[in-house]
């Protein structure tokens, strides 16, 4: 007989503690568009470390859960076991929908027809289309050779600027990264169109407030109009050209899928810049990366990809994975009721020292062995809703790191606490990072 008992339930005081120490800092930093001053404050006050400790305390008191959080008006279930992470993600989008109420409220500001907020019928057209354009599940995109040339161009400009300005900081890196991103997605004519990504940033700032801020449809229309101008050119060697060549089923809305790709590349920029900093403080890991990047032409670069993956483990760009139960579901501990929101707080699993010896250190080698998903390590989610752009994202990030390392070794300036002997901080803001360029000792200078 099905178990109709209730799942373990947090007290109102525990729920308030979770909201104040986990949810509020996440909202403050900006879920969709990061707020640099708040990220800096979170790093100074170690808010992310405290958030993980809060969830650890809940697991110690209530076991593996799922743990019900009695939030007025909308119950939530907090996942506390790696095996439960796998179960929820493997059973998405049914019975656990990826298009949760919160996600719809946020993403509808700039991608109301994106696959992440689509119902089951629309998703059947949009998910395969995203996979086709992004070449999921291929590690190397069909346009890898062209994308490598774009990355090399922008990396050369970044390293030349670092010579002139002495240091490479976030603002300069972000300009180069976005030039690369626009060329890859929209074509050469979009390289210097900062306006199109600025419009997206304004919409993402609105999305931070989800349902608390009204949708600015006129601003969204301006953004789509500018985006469509680039896509209609369909310049060879860009994703825009692949869109032109790929048939779209009814209801796909190809234009409506592109904002998510640009949005995802923003988080990847932060991860890439953090990884560059870590390679500057971990000499043995940098030496292994430098050995891998010798040679020419587009290659998979598995170790550099692992470096990016471990940076994403330490500081996930999506710290909360949300799902929503579409029907009553039986668990060992009780029944998860229809409509319950499901919270997977990634840092809790990514930094769990009770299971992971590498929890607080930079350990990219761990990604080259086993199945990290079984440990709850899911920087790109998992299952049928896993990010369809994970391979192209890792390809672009590893290409950029290789192109920079081939020309310079970058060492963080005025940054302590991220060396091989250090416990990695819970928060690591890329916005204040500064890199001192040096000629790499083991590679010829480009």
Put the structure in a nutshell.
This protein is of the alpha+beta class and 446 residues long. It has a single domain, classed as Cytochrome P450 (Cytochrome p450, Orthogonal Bundle), CATH 1.10.630.10.
Protein architecture, described:
The chain has 16 helices and 10 strands. The protein has 446 residues and is of the alpha+beta class. The strands form 3 sheets. Strands 1-2-8-5-3 form a 5-stranded mixed sheet, sandwiched between helices. A 3-stranded antiparallel sheet has the order 4-10-9. Keywords: Heme, Iron, Metal-binding, Monooxygenase, Oxidoreductase.
In the CATH scheme, what's the topology name?
A: Cytochrome p450
Q: N- to C-terminal separation?
A: 69 Å
- Describe the largest sheet: 5 strands, mixed
User: What is the general shape?
Assistant: globular
Number of helices: 16
Poorly predicted runs: none
Report the count of strand segments.
10
Query: Rg to the nearest angstrom?
Result: 22 Å
Helicity, as a percent range? 40-55%
Identify the CATH architecture. Orthogonal Bundle
Average pLDDT: 93
CATH class, anyone? Mainly Alpha
Under CATH, the homologous superfamily reads: Cytochrome P450
The tally of structural domains comes to 1
How much of the polypeptide forms β-strand, as a percent range?
Answer: 5-15%
Element string (H = helix, E = strand): HHHEEHEHHHEHHHHHHHEEEEHHEE
Strand order of the largest sheet: 1-2-8-5-3
Family: Belongs to the cytochrome P450 family.
InterPro entries: Cyt_P450 (IPR001128), Cyt_P450_sf (IPR036396), Cytochrome_P450_Monoox (IPR050196)
Protein name: Cytochrome P450
Keywords: Heme, Iron, Metal-binding, Monooxygenase, Oxidoreductase
């Amino acid at each position: 007989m099905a178990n109709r008992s209730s799942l373990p339930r947090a007290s109102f005081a525990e729920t308030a503690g979770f909201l104040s120490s986990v949810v509020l800092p996440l909202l403050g930093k900006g879920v969709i568009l990061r707020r640099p001053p708040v990220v800096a404050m979170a790093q100074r006050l170690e808010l992310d470390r405290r958030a993980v400790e809060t969830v650890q305390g809940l697991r110690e008191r209530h076991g593996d859960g799922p743990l019900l959080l009695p939030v007025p008006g909308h119950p939530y279930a907090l996942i506390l076991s790696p095996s439960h992470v796998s179960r929820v993600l493997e059973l998405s989008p049914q019975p656990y929908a990826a298009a949760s109420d919160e996600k719809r409220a946020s993403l509808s500001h700039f991608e109301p027809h994106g696959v992440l907020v689509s119902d089951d019928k629309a998703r059947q057209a949009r998910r395969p289309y995203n996979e086709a354009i992004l070449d999921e599940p291929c590690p190397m995109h069909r346009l890898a050779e062209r994308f490598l040339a774009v990355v090399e161009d922008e990396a050369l400009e970044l390293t030349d600027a670092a010579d002139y300005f002495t240091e490479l900081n976030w603002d300069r890196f972000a300009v180069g990264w976005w030039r690369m991103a626009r060329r890859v997605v929209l074509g050469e004519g979009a390289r210097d169109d900062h306006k199109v990504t600025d419009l997206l940033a304004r919409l993402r700032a609105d999305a931070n407030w989800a349902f608390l801020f009204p949708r600015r449809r006129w601003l969204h229309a301006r953004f789509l109009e500018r985006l469509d101008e680039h896509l209609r050119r369909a310049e060879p060697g860009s994703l825009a050209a692949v869109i032109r060549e790929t048939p779209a089923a009814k209801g796909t809305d190809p234009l409506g899928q592109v904002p998510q790709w640009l949005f995802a590349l923003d988080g990847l920029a932060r991860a890439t810049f953090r990884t560059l900093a870590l390679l500057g403080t971990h000499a043995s890991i940098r030496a292994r990366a430098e050995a891998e990047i010798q040679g020419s032409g587009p290659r998979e670069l598995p170790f550099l990809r692992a470096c990016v993956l471990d940076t994403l483990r330490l500081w996930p760009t999506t710290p909360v994975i949300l799902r929503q139960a579409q029907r009553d579901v039986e668990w060992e501990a009780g029944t998860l009721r229809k409509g319950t929101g499901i919270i997977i707080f990634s840092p809790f699993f990514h930094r769990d020292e009770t299971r992971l010896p590498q929890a607080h250190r930079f350990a990219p080698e761990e990604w080259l062995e086993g199945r990290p998903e079984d440990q709850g390590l899911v920087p790109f989610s998992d299952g049928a809703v896993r990010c369809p752009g994970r391979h192209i994202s890792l390809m672009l990030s590893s290409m950029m790191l290789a192109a920079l390392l081939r020309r310079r070794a970058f060492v963080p300036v005025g940054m302590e606490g991220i060396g091989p002997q250090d416990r990695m901080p819970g928060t690591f803001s890329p916005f204040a990072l500064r890199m001192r360029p040096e000629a790499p000792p083991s590679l010829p200078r480009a």
